[in-house]
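agent> fetching stored inputs for the 5-O-phosphono-beta-D-ribofuranosylamine docking request
agent> found them:
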Amino acid sequence: MATLKLAVFASGRGSNLAAILDAIERGELDAQVKVVVSDKPEPGAFEIAHRHQVPTCSLPPGSFQNEAEYIASLLGVLSRHEVDFIALAGYLKMIPAEVVRAYRSRIVNIHPALLPAFGGKGMFGRRVHAAVLEYGCKVTGVTVHLVDESYDTGPPVVQECVPVREDDDAESLAARVLEVEHRIYPRALQLFAEGRVKVEGRRVRVRGAGEF
Ligand code: GRF
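agent> prediction call returned; pasting tokens
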């Protein structure tokens, strides 16, 4: 068991960040959020971070001369804050391959559908739930997965189903999925803190997964 030294990456409102911080404060997640990183100047997630006295760092892509400079800044921030694990929570920019390599199997993302369905570039927010309804799915869900070099393709660590109701619209479905996100993201991170996750290629084995 080791306290995760987390960086949470967020582009938007930060409700998953809030769920992580609340779980830490309740003693349910053995982690410390060392820094909240964003590609936006002042996302909602930063307000939440400030409220919890967590440092923030904005790295807007336009403010760097080139990709190499951006990557060096990002790795610098992570190392200065002694981050050993990264949780993406509504972060819209692709994680550079160098960062994925430096934190291999120590970066997770949460996606509001059952991957590999309804994932990939451009599939975020309301669009995901609208596409689920458009397809006529009877279930959707939440996926916490390892991050690799492309969008939403890393192997799942935890997935949970959410039923689609006859009268759902994208908003009602998003709200029901989000409740599950807030419950399972801190728990998924706790599995890593407890050393219960073993990665064997695409198979991510979770010891004692039945109790999850
Ligand atoms: C969540 O639905 C998450 O699954 C997706 O982006 C959204 C972020 O919401 N990756 P929030 O900023 O955590 O409220």
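agent> quick read of the result: The pocket of 5-O-phosphono-beta-D-ribofuranosylamine is lined by residues 10, 12-16, 89-90, 110-112, 124, 178, 181 (CB under 6 Å).
agent> awaiting further instructions
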